[in-house]
Amino acid sequence: MTTIHVQRIGDKALLPHSEFERLIALARQCEEIALQMHEDDVPAVGMMRLAEQGGAFDFWLQEGEDVYSLEDGEPA
Q1: Cys-Cys with 42: which of 1, 6, 8, 46 at CB 3.0–4.6 Å?
Q2: H or E stretch at 53
Q3: b/e for 33-51, b at 16 or more Cβ within 10 A?
């Protein structure tokens, strides 16, 4: 049995390159395949989901002292 690790972003799937190569090798064992690759930028929605799921901005969720006050936004 082969285990493939995939992260889904909307209707897209991200997987490590080594595991992608393993899928291709397995498919070629059964039949000849034609591989078409398109290297596009990740859509904005996908990038936002990655940022949300990645935890890089979790510090904004922590309770604590405010960094800014209401007076910081007022014109001088």
Answers
A1: 46
A2: helix 44-54
A3: eeeeeeeeeeeeebeebee
Q: Please give the model's pTM, rounded to 2 decimal places.
A: 0.41
Residue 34, CB-side half-sphere exposure with 13 Å CA sphere: 1
pLDDT tens digits for 23-63? 888 888 988 888 777 666 667 777 777 788 888 788 777 77
- Which pair of structure tokens corresponds to residue 33? 């395949």
Beta strands in 1-76 (DSSP E): 7-9, 12-14
Are 2 and 26 spatial neighbours (Cβ–Cβ below 8 Å)? yes
Q: Are 51 and 44 in contact (CB under 8 A)?
A: no
The token pair that represents 51 in the structure block: 């940022």
Q: Positive or negative, the Cα torsion across 68, 70, 71, 76? A: positive
